[in-house]
Every structure is written in structure tokens, then in C-alpha cells.
Amino acid sequence: MNIWVHSAIAGISLVAMAAVAAASVAVYESSTVTAAAKSDRLPIAETITPPEFTTIEVRTEGLSVLNRIAVPETASN
After folding, report:
1. 39, HSE (Cβ side, Cα atoms, 13 Å)
2. Is 61 helix (H, G, I), strand (E, B) or coil?
3. Cα distances (angstroms) measured from residue 22 to each of 10, 18, 29, 65
4. Is 77 a domain residue?
5. Does residue 60 belong to any structural domain of this protein?
6. pTM
7. 76 falls within a domain
8. Under DSSP, is residue 77 helix (H, G, I), strand (E, B) or coil?
9. Using CA atoms, how far apart are residues 20 and 27, in angstroms rounded to an integer?
10. pLDDT digits over 7-41, tens only?
């Protein structure tokens, strides 16, 4: 019984490895370049500037609480 379990684990591992290899080959063959892309394949729709934060610290006896609050953007004329 013990050898059956180990054989099943080895067999499943080999099948999974073959499936991953087949998927990788399909990705490589679908592209026109000879090497795999080194970047993200999802297109970037819009770059967003991250908001600025300020940290407010409130101290009491034996306790310090830090709050990060987004700084509101002000319109400049």
C-alpha cells in the first residue's frame, strides 16, 4: 500500500510537470520573439500618482498610536 501512495504522488507530479511544460511551450510559440517576455503581459491603462500621506502620532501613557492620513490635493490656479 505504501508503494502505491508514493507511485501515485510521483505520477501526479510528472503529469503536472508535463502540463506546465506544455503551457510554457504554447506561450513561447504564440509570441513572435525568440525569447520570453521579461515584463508583465497586461497592458497599463493609466499611471496613477500615489497619494501623499502624513503621519499623526498620538501619545498617552504607555501607548503610542500612529495614523497615516492622505493629504488632500489642492487645486492650483
Report:
1. 3
2. coil
3. 18, 6, 11, 53
4. no
5. yes
6. 0.37
7. no
8. coil
9. 11
10. 999 999 999 999 999 888 877 766 666 565 566 66
- Alpha carbon distances (Å) from 27 to 23, 43, 74, 75: 6, 17, 47, 47
Range of the domain at 43: 2-70
d(CA 74, CA 77): 10
CB atoms within 10 A of CB 27: 12
Q: What's the structural domain count of the chain?
A: 1
- How confident is the model at residue 48, as a pLDDT? 74
Residue 29, all three cell numbers: 510559440
Q: What is the DSSP letter of 76?
A: -
Calpha distance 67→32 (Å, rounded): 50
Q: pLDDT tens across 51-61, in order?
A: 788 899 999 99
Sequence length of the chain is 77
